[in-house]
Amino acid sequence: MKLYDFRNLSLKLDSLNYPEVKESRFEIVRKDFSEEEKKGNITFKEDGIYLLINGIEHKGYMYIKKADIGRFGFPKFHITNCSVIVEQKSKGFFNGHYFWHNSNTVTIIDRNTNELKKDIKLSLCSRCQAQANIRDYINTQGFFDLLDIQVEQPEEIVELDIFGYVKDWQQISKKFRIKNEYTCNKCSIKISKKIDQRFIQVHHKNGDKKNNTEKNLQCLCILCHANSDKKHIANFQKKRSIHEINSFIEKYKDELIRIGNPFIMIT
Ligand SMILES: [Zn+2]
Ligand SMILES: [Zn+2]
Ligand SMILES: [Zn+2]
Asked: Domain spans of the chain?
């Protein structure tokens, strides 16, 4: 199952001679963990276990295929080589026993009854949670919810997706934000921290994304931008955007209240 269909974007890009943009995004995949590890397709990273599929790294987790559910309840899912996994390996109970997966739910076989348990949301292993310092999610649903925002998504792809074109949009946008000193034209919050400057965005006043004259541009914080009109409110409902807005509010709540951002109270 493909969650994102970038076909239209790719076609558009092809016609504009930008074939270098990948048609990636993630797919729901379940693979035998050991087999993929043997092939060298598995990489452990801080926030998950990455599986290489057609040259693209997909973030996921591992979980045991067959479990003694009657005795131990549902197993946990893992995102690191935690002590539980190390122990399983030392007992020779790892190879061939785990799946790599990236969906919100899993299917597990009850070892005693051979019954299939479907659509199960597994909880994150507490050792993994501690080791990777995970606070954003506690189960496979939460893990999954974060997938679409954590896959590397260069800004120009987003812009191209919406606008249809404008290759130098990123430069235009950056220049404009620098000129405005990363200050929101509406609530006047100023973001100095480089890592947070993505919270300042450039808005097209008349809605025409092809009109990049300065008169038509406006520097807005993500919160003001998301609330600028009905269309924007709808556009910012995507998980990725909501997560971004939430992290903005989380980091700058006090400042937003202090300067009287008109949207801080209703969120
Ligand atoms: Zn673990
Ligand atoms: Zn603002
Ligand atoms: Zn806008």
From this structure: 26-150, 168-259
Residue pLDDT tens, the chain, 267 long: 333 333 443 444 334 333 322 333 457 889 999 999 999 889 887 778 988 877 667 889 999 999 999 999 999 999 999 999 999 999 999 999 999 999 899 999 999 999 999 999 999 999 999 988 888 889 999 888 777 433 333 333 334 444 444 556 767 888 899 999 999 999 999 999 877 888 999 998 988 877 889 999 999 999 999 999 888 888 887 766 788 888 899 899 999 999 999 998 644
- Ligand 3 geometric centre to CA of 133 (Å): 35
Distance 250 CA to ligand 1 centre (A): 28
**Which ligand has its closest atom nearest to the C-alpha of 230?**
3
Q: What is the distance in A from the centroid of ligand 3 to the CA of 263?
A: 16
Provide CB contacts within 8 A for 97, sequence distance 6+: 34, 64, 65, 66, 88
Neighbouring CB atoms inside 10 A of 87's CB total: 11
Nearest ligand, measured from the Cα of 158: 3
Ligand closest to Cα of 223 equals 2
In the reported structure, the alpha carbon of residue 76 is separated from the centroid of ligand 1 by a whole-number distance in angstroms of 7
Q: Ligand 2: distance of its center to the CA of 205 in Å?
A: 15
Distance CA 13, CA 6 (A): 10
Does the reported pTM lie above 0.85?
no
CA of 77 to the centre of ligand 1 (A): 7
Report how far ligand 3's centroid is from the alpha carbon of 201 (Å). Answer: 8
* Cross-strand bridge partners of residue 53: 56
CA gap 251, 249 in Å, rounded: 5
